[in-house]
């Protein structure tokens, strides 16, 4: 797995988390779609044996979360490689009024992946939904459908 793909996974996960957090619908409202982008702020990679991209490698990231050109919070997460092209990721988005949790099976062989919003705290307690994450050369975009 290349460094760009690892960072891309982090971006995708953070975007997902941020988008889910930025929307606060209720159970009686229809799902809302939120579009987000992220800015990479750092990360790490642990290349477990065998050398090179392989199952068991670990990577983490932190990012700035942006909605409509405005910083709305920060995101961080960790991913574990399952195969050379698939990683399981857990992500948290931290906002002024709460945190949201996201799970993602990131398939690097695809330009678009879908993630699950699995919960939250504060204003996002009980958050659920999903996000379409599209990776690109200039960054990643996420369309999040959030239902509370």
Q: Helices and strands in order, then pairings?
A:
Elements: H1 3-22, E1 32-46, E2 58-67, E3 70-81, E4 86-95, E5 98-107, E6 112-120, E7 128-136, E8 139-147
Antiparallel strand pairs: 1-2, 1-8, 2-3, 3-4, 4-5, 5-6, 6-7, 7-8
Under the CATH scheme, which architecture would be assigned? Beta Barrel
Strand order in the largest sheet: 1-2-3-4-5-6-7-8
Task: Could you tell me the CATH topology label.
Answer: AOC barrel-like
In terms of DSSP E residues, the strand content is over 45%
Query: Which blocks of ≥5 consecutive residues have pLDDT under 50?
Result: 14-27
Query: Which structural class should the secondary elements be placed in?
Result: mainly beta
The rough form would be described as globular
Count of discrete structural domains: 1
CATH class: Mainly Beta
Major sheet:
8 strands, antiparallel, barrel
Helix content: 10-25%
Cα end-to-end separation: 35 Å
Query: Total strand count, please?
Result: 8
Instruction: Count every helix, treating DSSP H or I runs of 4 or more residues as helices.
Output: 1
* Computed CA radius of gyration, to the nearest angstrom: 14 Å
């Amino acid at each position: 797995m290349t460094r760009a793909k690892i960072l891309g996974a982090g971006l995708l996960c953070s975007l997902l988390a941020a988008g889910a957090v930025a929307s606060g619908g209720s159970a009686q409202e229809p799902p809302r779609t939120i579009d987000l982008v992220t800015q990479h702020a750092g990360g790490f990679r642990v290349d477990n044996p065998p050398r090179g991209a392989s199952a068991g490698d670990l990577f983490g990231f932190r990012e700035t979360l942006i909605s409509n050109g405005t910083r709305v919070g920060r995101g961080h997460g960790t991913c574990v490689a399952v195969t050379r092209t698939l990683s399981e990721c857990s992500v948290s988005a931290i906002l002024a009024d709460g945190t949201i949790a996201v799970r993602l099976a990131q398939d690097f062989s695809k330009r678009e992946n879908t993630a699950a919003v699995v919960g939250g705290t504060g204003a996002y307690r009980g958050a659920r939904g999903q996000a379409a994450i599209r990776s690109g050369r200039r960054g990643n975009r996420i369309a999040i459908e959030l239902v509370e």
